[in-house]
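Appendix B, Record 12. Input sequence as logged:
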Amino acid sequence: MEGGTVAIPDLGAHCQDPECNQLDFLPFKCDSCRKVFCLDHRSYKSHNCPKSDPQNRKVLVCETCSTSIETTGCDKDDEKALLDRHEKSGDCDPKKKKKPTCAVRRCREVLRFSNTSVCKSCQIKVCLKHRFPDDHSCKPNSSSVTGSASDSKFLIALAKRTVNGGVNDCAKEGRSGTGAAASPPSTPSVKAC
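Logged structural output:
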């Protein structure tokens, strides 16, 4: 198929998808079937490439040892069979499994029992260096909103206990039963000279 314009006939190419045939000035050539396609039909899936299987790559991750296993579509093996073969090969070692690390970007601290902190606002596990909300760019989730409501209830109850700038003593209320009109203790106060 010829592409381009009348003035420049070698510019671009027509999409070889049978339903498209769009003139594209920056065409893509499929590395499997060697046909030319426009931006919309450049992927193997979009132009139903018959030779895409050898080019199709997929990576499986072993849950036991965290090893990556690359596979292509030409093997025709299912994922479970590949993982079973890897497990039986002797290369699968649970000691290689990656340990959990701090959730903060660029922090590679391995989280253990003694150095792990769970944020009360966003519920993520971080190392002790990033335990404060400002250190790990905390984004509170919906469960932390209920926690802040209980905090505000506490502050309201504390404010109710304050009477005329002084704090009521709950222990005195409990003994005398009359509240603020309770008598002072019977022991006389002694002033130091």
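The beta strands are 13-14, 23-24, 28-29, 36-37, 57-61, 68-72, 116-118, 125-127, 162-163, 166-167.
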